[in-house]
């Protein structure tokens, strides 16, 4: 993981040297500034994890500088260091947004503890935002089960991609596990302990996508009663996963490109740029190159987001993996449902292996769930497998055993299937807003 970067602001070169020497030895990266103007210029240009700020500076004092730094980026913790240990000064600096207040001469070990703590708090805050916007907790799946050449190739590509820093574009048919792979890549990257923020770009209005990604200032538009932190900002030092990237509105695309190229962006209604450091993982089941040709996706953004390309193979290209995958999926489902472990008969495994799986792993999971609902013993036979699109939710014996949540899940699957996977008409039929349906799709792991 990258070292936490600290900006040390102090007019005395001996103090800056001592702080730099100590902090670098203890695993931090350090930049220095000797005055307010220099500190502000550096702070605008670079991404810092924390700042230590001496009170008296040649061109002003910390109480002048603090609000200016906070206006550029309010999320970076600032530790005030001063010879003038008055209570009023401490209170004022905290009111202005300082995280901590230390009195000179600074005990370097104490400063290290303070910095580690503020960095930890900051990380937790970002994770909190990440959890708030994410519907379900991350869970570890073995994404590379099986011995087929296709899955071995995928594991190899993914392992290489995880350790790089460039943006990743994941392509593949619907239901192949692109979103799960994006989470795996984040967890196995140097940013794995930082937040992962996910957003599905499909079906949202331009305005919604804009504020979700970039945030907005209070009063930026009617209804913006409070400022909002966007996904990019909340994911600072972590990863942003944009699903259905091919559906991103053309007018939002240049803003994303700027954030990727210059590592800066602006909240809606804001006059200054904010710095940000994130890794982008995009996924799409559409052919992005074809979208570029049709001028529905910007070529410059395409080249930027596709520095590393991974294509997840469809199940039909790895039929030999299906028995192991099906048994493992069934194990997960029984665990999630609190059921006893169930096995698939040899014959049933053969039937699964011969099926075409246009809906890939998602479809396999649905078939297994339906089989489990109908199963009367702890062995699923081929007759229990139902490849028809309709879940048994129409008042039969199976449906009366469903919980309300399971009923909801099956009804949503049913309507989505009947609408060919298109969220908008499905939401209309279900009589719920499109965004609610997206949330439910995510929450139910569909
Ligand atoms: N290797 C795997 N093992 C078990 N379950 C998996 C695996 N890969 C994907 N799944 C499950 O299959 C379903 C679809 O996966 P996911 O959402 O990642 O696919 P996707 O390719 O992103 O789909 P879409 O293109 O429709 O967005 C999810 O329920 C997911 O948990």
Automatic annotation (TrEMBL):
A single MF term (Gene Ontology): sequence-specific DNA binding
Sites bearing 4-aspartylphosphate, chain numbering: 54
Pfam family, one: AAA_lid_14
Record domain Sigma-54 factor interaction: where: 144-373
Keywords for the protein's UniProt record, in alphabetical order: ATP-binding, Nucleotide-binding, Phosphoprotein, Transcription, Transcription regulation
Domain Response regulatory: start-end pairs: 5-119
Record InterPro entries: AAA+_ATPase, AAA_lid_NorR, CheY-like_superfamily, Homeodomain-like_sf, HTH_Fis, P-loop_NTPase, Sig_transdc_resp-reg_receiver, Sigma_54_int
UniProt record, GO biological process: phosphorelay signal transduction system; regulation of DNA-templated transcription
Highest taxon listed in the record's lineage: Bacteria
Protein's name in the database: Two-component system response regulator
Lineage: Bacteria, Pseudomonadati, Acidobacteriota, Holophagae, Holophagales
């Amino acid at each position: 993981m990258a070292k936490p970067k600290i900006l040390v602001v102090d007019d005395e070169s001996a103090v800056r040297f001592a702080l730099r020497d100590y902090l670098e030895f203890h695993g931090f990266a350090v930049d220095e500034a000797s005055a307010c103007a220099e500190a502000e210029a550096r702070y605008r240009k670079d991404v810092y994890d924390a700042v230590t700020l001496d009170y008296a500076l040649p061109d002003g004092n910390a109480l002048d500088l603090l609000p200016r730094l906070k206006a550029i980026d309010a999320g970076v913790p600032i530790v005030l260091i001063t010879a003038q240990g008055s209570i009023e000064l401490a209170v004022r600096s905290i009111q202005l947004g300082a995280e901590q207040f230390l009195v000179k001469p600074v005990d370097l070990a104490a400063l290290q503890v303070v910095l580690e703590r503020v960095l930890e708090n900051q990380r937790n805050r970002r994770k909190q935002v990440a959890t708030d916007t994410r519907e379900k907790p991350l869970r570890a799946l073995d994404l590379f089960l099986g011995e087929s050449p296709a899955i071995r190739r995928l594991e190899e590509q993914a392992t290489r991609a995880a350790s790089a820093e460039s943006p990743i574009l994941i392509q593949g048919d619907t239901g192949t596990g692109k979103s799960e792979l994006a989470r795996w890549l984040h967890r196995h990257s140097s940013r794995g302990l930082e937040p992962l923020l996910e957003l599905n770009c499909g079906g949202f209005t331009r305005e919604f996508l804009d504020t979700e990604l970039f945030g907005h200032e209070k009063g930026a538009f009617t209804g913006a009663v409070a400022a909002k932190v966007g996904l990019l900002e909340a994911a600072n030092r972590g990863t942003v996963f944009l699903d259905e990237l091919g559906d991103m509105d053309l007018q939002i695309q240049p803003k994303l490109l700027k954030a990727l190229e210059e590592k800066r962006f602006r909240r809606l209604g804001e006059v200054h740029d904010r710095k940000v450091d994130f890794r982008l993982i995009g996924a799409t089941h559409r052919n992005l190159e074809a979208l570029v040709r049709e001028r529905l996706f910007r070529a410059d953004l395409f080249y930027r987001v596709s520095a590393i390309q991974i294509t997840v193979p469809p199940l039909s290209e790895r039929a030999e993996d299906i028995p192991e995958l099906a048994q493992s999926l069934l194990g997960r489902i029984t665990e999630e449902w609190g059921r006893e472990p169930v096995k698939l008969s040899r014959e049933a495994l053969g039937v699964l292996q011969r099926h075409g799986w246009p809906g890939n792993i998602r479809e396999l999971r649905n078939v297994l769930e339906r089989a489990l609902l109908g199963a009367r013993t702890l062995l699923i036979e081929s007759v229990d497998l139902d490849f028809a699109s309709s879940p048994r939710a129409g008042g039969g014996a199976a449906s009366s055993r469903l919980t309300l949540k399971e009923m909801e899940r099956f009804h949503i699957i049913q309507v989505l299937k009947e609408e060919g996977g298109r969220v908008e008409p499905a939401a209309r039929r279900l009589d719920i807003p499109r965004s609610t349906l997206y949330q439910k799709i995510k929450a139910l792991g569909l």
